Amino acid sequence: MAAFKERVFSGVQPTGNLHLGNYLGAISRFVPLQEKYDCIYCVVDMHAITMPPSVWGGPQELKRQIREVTAAFLAAGIDPKRHIVFNQSQVSEHAELAWIFNCVARIGWLNRMTQFKEKAGKDRENASVGLYAYPTLMAADILVYRATHVPVGEDQKQHLELTRDVAQKFNNDFAESIAACGFGDAFFPLAEPLIQGPAMRIMSLRDGTKKMSKSDPSDYSRINLTDDADTIAQKIRKAKTDPEPLPSEEKGLEGRPEADNLVGIFAALKGVPRAEVLREFGGGQFSVFKAALIDLAVDHLGPLGAEMKRLVGDPAYIDSVLSDGADRARAIARPVMDAVKDITGFVRRG
Ligand code: ATP
Ligand code: MG
């Protein structure tokens, strides 16, 4: 396999309120990668419109949320000068490559995607074609930069596997042309997930078997990054638990999804293993543990939320970050797309 330049790509949808799951599972993990890799962090607004406007709130709300996700990236410590921060719709190569991938991916592959089944719900006939094809656009997001590493939460693992399948099939289907165009034995890398550590899947505060999600209708199911201290405290106090005290060992969390989730959140926020949390709080009542969790969450999210609000108050600055990032992203994506056209056999102006 050809050697590829190491590059990180990841995206967050501007749909609804960013929550603790997005932060612990994705955004906070983007930050340290900046030391080791060239990183591209994208607000994937074209993914947002795969659900009906009534879900994401319509055009004004979409604009607001694109800027809010950008603010979260910056507030978390992503450096838009050393790396690239932009919104997907400003770089049309994503959509262009997605079409080619729609012709590479098989219907059977997409039929297996659990996110589609969950988001389409019972009325599948009424889901958008875009929601169904979401994973091929995600593959294009990653591969239009020939990115090699993708930090995502555990819920996106299946889509990343599909991205690898698309890359592999394109490399196989066009093997001769790839070699003839001077790209050796593979044009696209097989991007690897960067999913590690505790709390890769933060669950809903109301139901420990469902993931915390922007699109959950109940605001009590999640802690939003912009929630104030009182709201955070109230949500954690109301979070579902069970009547047993906390166990002293991890094995005791089995079959107790809500307890497991709260311990996982504590561990991730504090940056320690679950076992250490249980050594401290095992045998005690939830009320004591919850009080400590409230302090920890408020300490973490307070400054982040305040910085996000400050940045959102300056939309001209946010927009300038996005357009500068889009220019630099396009400088990478355009030559890749031109090469894909040559490999595929499209005639293009030189
Ligand atoms: P939606 O419900 O609209 O799909 P979402 O909350 O799943 O929203 P996305 O924008 O789809 O958010 O995902 C952004 C990133 O956050 C992805 O890397 C995803 O894996 C991660 N993520 C989302 N939810 C969780 C969660 N509950 N726990 C850990 N990571 C998560
Ligand atoms: Mg999602």
What does this structure look like?
- The protein has about 350 residues and is mainly alpha-helical.
- It contains 15 helices and five strands.
- The chain has helices spanning about 20-35, 45-50, 55, 60-75, 95-105, 105-110, 115-120, 130-145, 155-175, 175-180, 230-240, 255-270, 275-280, 285-310, 315-345, and strands at about 5-10, 40-45, 85, 150, 190-195.
- Strands 1-2-3 form a three-stranded parallel β-sheet. A two-stranded parallel sheet has the order 4-5.
- Strand 1, helix 1 and strand 2 (about 40-45) form a beta-alpha-beta unit.
- Helix 8 crosses helix 9 (about 155-175).
- The chain is globular and about 70 Å long.
- The relative contact order is 0.15.
- The structure holds adenosine-5'-triphosphate (ATP) and magnesium ion (MG).
Fill in the keyword field for this structure.
350 residues, binds adenosine-5'-triphosphate, binds magnesium ion, mainly alpha, 15 helices, two-stranded parallel ribbon, globular
**In which order are the strands of the major sheet placed?**
1-2-3
Tell me the helix content.
Answer: 40-55%
Shape type: globular
The H-and-E topology, N to C, reads as EHEHHHEHHHHEHHEHHHHH
Q: What structural class do the secondary elements suggest? A: mainly alpha
Rounded to the nearest angstrom, the radius of gyration is 21 Å
* Intertermini distance: 28 Å
Largest sheet entry = 3 strands, parallel
Average per-residue pLDDT, rounded, comes to: 95
Bound small molecules, deduplicated: adenosine-5'-triphosphate, magnesium ion
- Total of helices: 15
Q: Indicate the proportion of strand residues.
A: 5-15%
| Beta strand count | 5
